[in-house]
Each structure stands twice: as structure tokens, then as C-alpha cells.
Design goal:
Elements lengths: L2 H4 L5 H10 L3 E5 L3 H9 L4 E4 L3 H4 L11 H14 L4 E5 L9 H15 L3 E3 L7 H9 L4 E6 L5 H4 L9 H17 L3 E5 L3 H10 L4 E4 L7 E4 L1 H4 L17 H18 L10
Parallel strand pairs: 1-2, 1-8, 2-3, 3-4, 4-5, 5-6, 6-7, 7-8
């Protein structure tokens, strides 16, 4: 029996209980039915339908081009596959920044049309009004601080954030602000490990790190990166658990050879 078949449904309350008990939270991305089912069966607590689909599924250089309709489509595919994990859907660039009414409308569309369980927004003080407005509709919100990829053109680089004291202090203040606004958890991306630990100790809600060290309450990776499907992205924090790109290419080469040689199909593979 799979892990999913033996375990209870994960909720936002479950994650809080895990933090309070000192139990680490696991989170991976998924964007389609087949891989989402494998992730869920593997026992992951949270599945993020990430706007990283813009990169790994659509081949865009950044997350900026992906649309709300695209995110809803990917979330629909994931929701159909999942029995156990909490499903969090990224709100894409342009669907919430600077307009809390638009943010609420976007979040409602995601929840109604996809069946996801929560949404995630990037930013701190500048998006708190959107967070609060979304929460008025009873929609759970996950925050995201540190390196926020939707703001890549503002940063100009994917380098580690909050190394300087001023930015670090703002990040801590933003985390407290997001907690006070009602976020159930916060992703901390690519910040110094010491700062991530400090943030995790300063707030009572769970923190999920990516490139933020071990002092957080959980970890998240992009599925295609950790499985070695995509190989052109190799930051220090990424651990590849497989090299599927090599295995998949090898299998395809073997198939092509077998078809061209007449080896496939053989007598037992036909009617």
C-alpha cells in the first residue's frame, strides 16, 4: 500500500501541528496528473502547483509569462491525482500585485475552477493588503519571502537575498507581518541559513525553505530538478535524487533503434 493510502489528509492545521511537534514538512512541485499522483503516493505533505511551470513545462526563461488560466489548468490536473497532500497554487505575476480586489478575484478563480486548497503569493509589506483581502473569502494563503522569482527584473539576479542587515531586518519584519495578516506558512527562498533559522524562531507559523538551510520547518524543491529531468539548473541547494534525463534519453534511443531494426514489435507484442 502506498504512503498516501495509509495516511490522513493533510490540512493547514496539520502543518501547524507538525511545526509545534518539531516534525519536518515535505513539499514538492507538480504540474500534471501522472507525476502528481506519484508525488502524493510518495508521502509528500504539500504539493505546490508552482509558477515554475513557466520554466520546466513551457520553457520560458522566467516565471513572469505564465498566466492565471495556465495556473488553473495545471492545478486542475494535479487536483485530479491527489488524495492526501495539501495542494497550494501559485498566484502568477500580474494576478495580485498592487490591486487587492484583483487579488481576491484571482484567488477565487483558482479555488473555484481548480479545486486547490490554498494559494501562494510572493512579497511582504507590499502585498499584505492582497493577503488580507483573500483571507476575507476564507482562502488559505502561504507567503513567500527572500528570492521572489516574479520580481527577477527588479533584482536583476537570482543571487542569495538578505545578506545585508537592512534587507535581513525587513525580511524578518515582513515575515511577522504576513503571520499577523493570517498566512498559514511562509516559503523562504535562497537566504542565509542563519537568517532563515532566526525567522523560523521569530514566528509561530511553519517556514518552508528552498536554499535556506536546515533551520526551517520544512523543505521544498522543484520536482523536475530533484529528479534530474531538467539538468541546466544546478544551484548549491539542489540535491538530485535521480538522473532521469539520461535514463529517459537512453530508453528513447533504444526504442528508436528497435523500431528501425524491426526488433519492435515482436510476435508477442502484436495481435
Amino acid at each position: 500500500m502506498s504512503v498516501a493510502g495509509k495516511a490522513r489528509k493533510i490540512t493547514t492545521n496539520t502543518l501547524q501541528e507538525m511545526k509545534d511537534a518539531g516534525e519536518k514538512i515535505t513539499m514538492l512541485t507538480a504540474y500534471d496528473y501522472s507525476l502528481a499522483k506519484l508525488v502524493d503516493n510518495g508521502g509528500v505533505d504539500v504539493i505546490l502547483v508552482g509558477d515554475s511551470a513557466s520554466n520546466v513545462m513551457a520553457g520560458n526563461e522566467t516565471t513572469v509569462p505564465i498566466t492565471l488560466d495556465h495556473m488553473i489548468y495545471h492545478a486542475q490536473c494535479v487536483v485530479r491525482a491527489v488524495d492526501r497532500a495539501l495542494i497550494v497554487v501559485d498566484m502568477p505575476f500580474g494576478s495580485y500585485q498592487g490591486n487587492s480586489r484583483l487579488a481576491l478575484e484571482s484567488a477565487i478563480r483558482i479555488m473555484k475552477e481548480s479545486g486547490g486548497h490554498a494559494v501562494k503569493l510572493e512579497g511582504g509589506a507590499e502585498i499584505v493588503d492582497s493577503v488580507k483581502r483573500i483571507l476575507t473569502a476564507g482562502i488559505p494563503v502561504m507567503g513567500h519571502l527572500g528570492l521572489t522569482p516574479q520580481s527577477i527584473y527588479k533584482f536583476g539576479t537570482y543571487t542569495v537575498r538578505a545578506r545585508e542587515e537592512e534587507e535581513a531586518e525587513k525580511l524578518i519584519a515582513d515575515a511577522k507581518m504576513l503571520e499577523e495578516a493570517g498566512c498559514f506558512a511562509i516559503v523562504l527562498e535562497k537566504i542565509p541559513a542563519g537568517l532563515a533559522t532566526k525567522v523560523s524562531q521569530a514566528i509561530s507559523i511553519p517556514t518552508i525553505g528552498i536554499g535556506a538551510g536546515a533551520g526551517v520547518d520544512g523543505q521544498v524543491l522543484v520536482l523536475h530538478d530533484m529528479l534530474g529531468i531538467t539538468m541546466d539548473f544546478s544551484p548549491r541547494f539542489l540535491r538530485r535524487y535521480l538522473n532521469l534525463s539520461e535514463k529517459i534519453e537512453g530508453a528513447i534511443n533504444e526504442y528508436v533503434d528497435d523500431v528501425r531494426s524491426g526488433e519492435f514489435p515482436n510476435e508477442s507484442e502484436q495481435y
